[in-house]
Amino acid sequence: MKKISCIILFFVTTTSLFSQKLSKDELKTKLAEVTCKCAEGKEMTKDNYELSLGLCILEAVNKYQPDVEKHYGKDYISKIEEIGGDVGEKVAVVCPNLLLKILETSGSDFNDSATDAVDETYEDDIIEGTFVSTSVDGFLYVKVKEATGKTNQFLLINSFENSYLILDKVLKANDKVKVYYFDAELYNAKTNKYEYFKVINDLVKL
């Protein structure tokens, strides 16, 4: 976000004509929706993804300025990083494909073959066990219990062929599953720090 501090003023010269009188949670969702729509049409690279995403967040903030001022104060520009964290929390739910795109773009070896290389790595991380439940707490979590009794939590933030098993609630408690996953460092708005999470790359019902 620091990269965009010099251009913030360009996005606060106009004010939304109609306040939506949104709750803070509703506002974060709306900001995420605008951010997602804005980012869809942008070509992101390793060098510009932070700037591109920041501009999209500012576009969203500008659209809902009255509500932003209500929940973050009139000096909300000084809290742009906090707003960005709140939007990021909702982006994982509203448009998980964007989050995956950001993770891929920010990789150390960003190039045309990056996705193939990453997929090969992800396939090495597999856990078999029984499906326990799903829960939503900023992210969508999937709990799977191994035969040893250890319970693992996985994030569902990207699209894959068998994601319907979770989203359409096809899986039932104690169904046996095989989970393909990778570790990703994501910003956790609740703890205000980056943490490692297990992200589902694929899931198969056994």
Description:
By secondary structure, this protein is an alpha+beta fold. The chain has seven helices and five strands; from the N terminus they run ααααααβββαββ. It has a five-stranded mixed barrel with strand order 1-2-3-5-4. The longest helix is centred in the N-terminal third of the chain and has 17 residues, at 24-40. The N and C termini lie far apart (44 Å). Mean pLDDT is 76; it is low at 1-19 and 108-123.
List the helices and strands and how they pair.
Elements: H1 24-40, H2 49-63, H3 65-72, H4 80-94, H5 96-105, H6 114-122, E1 126-137, E2 139-145, E3 151-155, H7 164-167, E4 176-188, E5 193-205
Parallel strand pairs: 3-5
Antiparallel strand pairs: 1-2, 1-4, 2-3, 4-5
Helix pairs in contact: 1-2, 1-4, 4-5
Keywords:
alpha+beta, 5-stranded mixed beta barrel, 7 helices, 206 residues
Beta strand count? 5
Alpha-carbon distance between the two ends: 44 Å
| Biggest sheet: strand arrangement | 1-2-3-5-4
Residue share in helices?
A: 25-40%
Class based on secondary structure composition and strand pairing: alpha+beta
List SSEs in N-to-C order. HHHHHHEEEHEE
Shape estimate:
elongated
Main sheet, how many strands, which sense, barrel? Answer: 5 strands, mixed, barrel
Strand content: 15-25%
In the predicted model, the low-confidence regions spanning at least 5 consecutive residues are 1-19, 108-123
Mean pLDDT: 76
Number of helices: 7
Radius of gyration: 19 Å
